[in-house]
């Protein structure tokens, strides 16, 4: 019997078999959605199909029998109603180029990648519009450690799209008793929050690694939120988006949770470990390594002073030590908290 095309069954192709891609594919499969998981490591996919476990990233998660593993990218996306991209930001543009000639005309595109295009500071939705024009597109983001989602612990995220019907469709594919999915229409704001929180998490990690106390952590989170809001408003994002799950929610999680790779990078730096050794110890992509450059580039373009973000960039580039960076923040001139209103430039 000829297999029914995935598109007719509302099928989903998840591209990226790391921890987050595996967790999202598992959610969809558990919801009865025909789901294909693709990854660059064909051997790892074969092992996952045999053991129904992702031994490298989520060894404790029993993968559902309804989840298919496909090492052939063309087969993974062929006839898919929705493609969900979950690869690091530095690989995002190439992934779009790879799938462009493979997609059916009606296939919709979503991504759970957080960050900017390295070297240009462009948002990921801009790349989607450029390389896959005319398609419904959505970003999935919010405070969500893959390990906790995989374990069935309660989580809440948000899907933003200019296409309200597609946003709701993607939310329906993933929504579950312990995984609440909200919707919105501010793609730029949702992407900014998901990217910028990684930079700010390094700052709080550094402070905690230096054992500067809970007061310092709270101050950095609050002033970091201020930097996110001011940059967001300058770019045209909605403040309420950044005060929601994709901004404040993700910021709090990433700045306080030790499952965060970016926070762990900061912790290591604050403890005196060198940048290369710290990244090697984490063993996965640390998005703040490139995102800090793009945040500062955007801030300079809009004539904004973002001292925490700029300090993180300087530390990551070895221009200052963590101790020097913290001293510079504390030595800044005294001023009103909001000299020009909530979204002033200071």
Secondary-structure map:
Elements: E1 12-15, H1 19-30, E2 35-38, H2 42-51, E3 67-69, H3 73-77, E4 82-85, H4 92-99, E5 108-111, H5 124-131, E6 137-141, H6 146-150, E7 155-160, H7 164-174, E8 179-184, H8 187-209, H9 214-235, H10 239-242, H11 245-256, H12 261-270, H13 275-282, H14 288-301, H15 307-316, H16 322-330
Helix pairs in contact: 4-5, 8-9, 8-11, 8-12, 8-14, 8-15, 9-11, 12-13, 14-15, 15-16
Concise account of the structure shown:
The protein has helices at residues 19-30, 42-51, 73-77, 92-99, 124-131, 146-150, 164-174, 187-209, 214-235, 239-242, 245-256, 261-270, 275-282, 288-301, 307-316, 322-330; strands spanning 12-15, 35-38, 67-69, 82-85, 108-111, 137-141, 155-160, 179-184. It is an alpha/beta fold and 346 residues long.
Give a verbal description of the structure:
The longest helix is centred in the middle third of the chain and has 23 residues, at 187-209. The protein folds into 2 domains: 6-185, 3-Layer(aba) Sandwich (Rossmann fold); 188-330, N-(1-d-carboxylethyl)-l-norvaline Dehydrogenase, domain 2. The relative contact order is 0.10. The chain is 49% helix and 10% strand. Helix 2 (42-51) links the parallel strand 2 and strand 3 (67-69). The chain has 346 residues and is α/β, with parallel strands linked by helices. The protein has an 8-stranded mixed beta sheet, with helices on both faces. It is globular and about 60 Å long. It is built from 16 helices and 8 strands. Residues 1-9 have low confidence and may be disordered.
């Amino acid at each position: 019997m000829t297999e029914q095309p995935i598109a007719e069954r509302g099928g989903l192709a998840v591209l990226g078999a790391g921890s987050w891609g595996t967790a999202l594919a598992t959610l969809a499969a558990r919801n009865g959605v025909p789901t294909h998981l693709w990854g660059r490591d064909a051997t790892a996919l074969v092992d996952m199909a045999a053991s129904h476990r992702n031994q490298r990233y989520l060894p404790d998660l029993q993968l559902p029998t309804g989840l298919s593993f496909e090492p052939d990218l063309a087969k993974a996306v062929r006839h898919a109603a929705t493609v969900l991209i979950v690869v690091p930001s530095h690989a995002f543009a190439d992934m779009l180029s790879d799938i462009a000639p493979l997609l059916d005309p009606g296939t919709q595109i979503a991504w759970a990648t957080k960050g900017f295009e390295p070297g240009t500071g462009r948002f990921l939705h801009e790349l989607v519009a450029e390389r896959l024009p005319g398609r419904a597109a959505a970003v999935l983001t919010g405070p969500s450690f893959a390990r906790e989602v995989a374990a069935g612990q309660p989580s809440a995220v948000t899907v933003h799209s200019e296409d309200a019907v597609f946003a709701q469709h993607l939310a329906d594919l993933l929504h579950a008793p312990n995984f609440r999915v909200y919707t919105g229409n501010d793609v730029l704001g949702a992407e900014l929050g998901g990217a910028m929180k990684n930079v700010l998490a390094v700052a709080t990690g550094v402070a905690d690694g230096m054992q500067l106390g809970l007061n310092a952590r709270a101050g950095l989170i609050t002033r970091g939120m201020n930097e996110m809001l001011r940059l967001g408003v300058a770019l045209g994002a909605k403040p309420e988006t950044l005060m929601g799950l994709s901004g404040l929610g993700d910021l709090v999680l990433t700045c306080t949770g030790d499952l965060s790779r970016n926070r762990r990078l900061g912790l290591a730096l604050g403890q005196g470990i060198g940048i290369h050794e710290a990244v090697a110890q984490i063993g996965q992509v640390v998005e703040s390594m490139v995102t800090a450059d793009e945040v500062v580039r955007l801030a300079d373009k809009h004539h904004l002073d973002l001292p925490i973000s700029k300090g993180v960039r300087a530390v990551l580039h070895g221009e200052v030590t963590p101790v020097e960076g913290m001293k510079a923040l504390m030595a800044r001139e005294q001023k009103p908290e909001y000299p020009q209103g909530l979204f002033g430039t200071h």
